[in-house]
Protein 1
Amino acid sequence: MSKERRILTDEEKKIVREKYGKLCYICEVSLDGYADNEIQYDHIFSHASEITGGEDLDKFAPIHASSNPAKKNCHLGKGTKTWYDYKEELRIKSKLKKITGLKDLCKDAKQCYFKKISDTEIVLNGKHIQLYNQKLFGKEDNLYFFDDIDVDYIENDNLIQLRPLDEDKILPLTLHLRGSVQLLPSIGRLDLKENKIKIFDGQHKAVAQIIGNEKKSIPCIIFVDPDISSLQRTVFDAHSKFLQQRYKRSHIMDKIAEQYKAKVEQWKLAHGDFPYSEMDILKGESKAQRRKIILASILEELSSCGAFIDGKYNFETDFVDITKKKRARHNPMLWDNYERLVSLLVNLEPVSETSVLPNNYRADEIGNLKYILGNVYWYAIKDKWNPDNPDSEAHQLAVRYFYDKVFEVYVPIIVKALRFSYEQKTDRALREDEGLCYREQFSEDLKKRFARIFERLFRHGIWANPMHKEIFRATTSGPIADLFSKEGIDYIYLAKLE
Ligand SMILES: [Zn+2]
């Protein structure tokens, strides 16, 4: 991390530009018209194992980086992803924009040539495939086969409705399927009138494999000329009453926290009962995995430390909703939002100081986090959130505070305001990856400043203004962000000193 970045000479920059055909590595659009200071040469392949050297030219690529808002800056939005992942994300998103579902991706399938040899064998496009039979009620035949089918031979089934495409799922699903076997195939039927294969279930996986992973064939289960009305009913039932309860995110976090504890036990077996650091335990894990484990441990610590707000509440158990139901929530804050808020406030990197050392601030971090969460309670929940009286104005106000998209807009603003306020008070800039709460206990003066930020946000006139009611209910964050910026609610306003 502290590795010195090599500065390329003009000649080297030219070589790198030529190598990429004078195109930006990220968006693959020309670099023409971009001055030297509007192009950044980034180290796009990161080899964590290489400690020194090896910064040879091969690893650099040119990227648009203009500070002129009318020009491209392909750095924005990368975050902590690798360049490759970020480029992939942009590629997949732009492809998804052009389609509404599998129906646009696989519009008109090629006709198949097939011949049923027996009840246990079919020939499809020249390939012999095993047939299976699922007899219903012991007599009705339902022949099907399993194969990797060339995407040219599949199309969307218009008779049996696919579930609508949820774009947010495609990207994580794509990345997941790159590293894991696809457990469930897409499901379709062989239509004997048109001689075509039509997919009626598993559209997300199909789109993720075709667009995300650029697969030319996908694993499918295909029923041979089934009864369509009974399939329609089956698909409907499968996605309503028989739908398995999905793993709740909070449970996944519990599992990860458990894994961490198991690793600690292993370490102790190998090294004895000595003080250990997070780094000792997590050395072999990927960066993303380490961050996940640290977050899970912090969340676990917070939930298991009993009541810490007003002497009677535990933030997670009393105010976080883990049922994932968007309507009629019993607790105000959605789990994902809780997780996100905490992750933005803590140090997610493993520390090398053992827990007995004074410069290990994990315990203080929990204390500081409790203080911040206490403010959320104090200004946004207390005397407001009251599901027993759902129509009351106070409850409606609290509902607005915790709408998913609204929260998405103001959480980064609040976090930035808190950090800014800390920097002002201490006259010291925080590193980007430096968690605000990971330090000695906040001083009383800092606490006052922080509380004022929450007060400014949640007591702002914007919330109760009937004109904005509809905007707060928006299903995308755009209009809400616009409203906040129109009203001048930014981190500078929130952190302003009297
Ligand atoms: Zn670009």
Protein 2
Amino acid sequence: MATICATPGCGKPAMYATRTKPAYCETCVHTLIDKAGLKPITMFSKPNEFFTTQCKTCGVVADYSFNYVLSKIKIGEPVCRACYWKHWFAQSWDDFGCGQGLAHGLSEEGARYLAHASGYELVQLIPGAVEGEELLLVRCSFCGRQVVETPGDIAWRCTCNRKQHDVSMPVQDRILDHAQEL
Ligand SMILES: [Zn+2]
Ligand SMILES: [Zn+2]
Ligand SMILES: [Zn+2]
């Protein structure tokens, strides 16, 4: 028996099979990706596989899994991490009257250094609303996944090579300090 799409009343065969989570048909997958604010550039065959998308709001191209897309729809959070972090930075100014960005802005060279130190290639330095709120659009040097990272979180590396590296706070801080001097 083929798995049937989890959208109530749809009835079409699901695009993929899962053991535990609901599965959707191709039409509903496209509708859900659209609802999440993204345009698909590539498609996936398994819901935990990364596929390439473009954000309809800010235009940033990044890779997510469909499971991740579904989890963000569920909690009403933008999937696009560039939009998410921009909103997060702005929210801090609204709520606390202060920013959460770096003390110094990141230059292109600083961003490239930071990306390299964390196993990525810099694709684009995304300027922030305020200096120090820059984001990094990077491509993993190992698996090729393209993601948006904050300067503070990039040291955690891509999920494909996270385990074997030292990401202790002193190491992170030293790298981040140096990146801001470049
Ligand atoms: Zn459907
Ligand atoms: Zn966006
Ligand atoms: Zn990777």
